[in-house]
Amino acid sequence: MVGRILDAGGQVLAEHGYEGASTSRIAAAAGISPGSLYQYFPHKDAIVLSVLERYSDTLVSSVTARMTGQFEQPAPVIVRSTLATLLDGLDVAPPFLRAAVEHGPRLDDGRALRAFEERIGELVLAYLTTQRPGLRPDTPLDTAVWMLVRTVEHLTVRYLLDRPPIPRERFLTELTHLALNYLRPTS
């Protein structure tokens, strides 16, 4: 039943966004009464937060699966394929993505977002540790990870919400160059 409610919550967020989501709409989409919904979730925000946490877990799993099998690949290959996986995972209905980035942090003081960033950061740190000899020596890895994760996250979200006239492949190429050049040693 919880899975049905979360599936319905995701569907309603994708169609109506946070403001248009209501427990009545979510219950109807789940095929249950609002009273039944309240047996599992006390209010809309609890459902939205659970939907967003499940989405975050799925996204981290996708990025993890992509990265872990490619550590031996050249940096441009692994960076681009990882960024493509992240872009694909974030490319959901704009009302859903907007709810995730605008309302999700408010619902739990940003804990879920920070947890997502930390989990992605751990992957990036693991990769950068294997690449340390080819990176700029003046930047501590923890600083580089923090900067990269948040830069990529912000640009990817803005790209998907703003829909600028930049083809997807061009966006991936530019974002890959940005990430790689940030880490390259200066001559």
TrEMBL record:
Pfam families: TetR_C_15 (PF17918), TetR_N (PF00440). This is TetR family transcriptional regulator. It comes from the Bacteria. Residues 1-59 form the HTH tetR-type domain. PANTHER family: HTH-TYPE TRANSCRIPTIONAL REGULATOR PKSA, HTH-TYPE TRANSCRIPTIONAL REGULATOR RUTR. GO terms for molecular function: DNA-binding transcription factor activity; transcription cis-regulatory region binding. Residues 22-41 bind DNA. Keywords: DNA-binding.
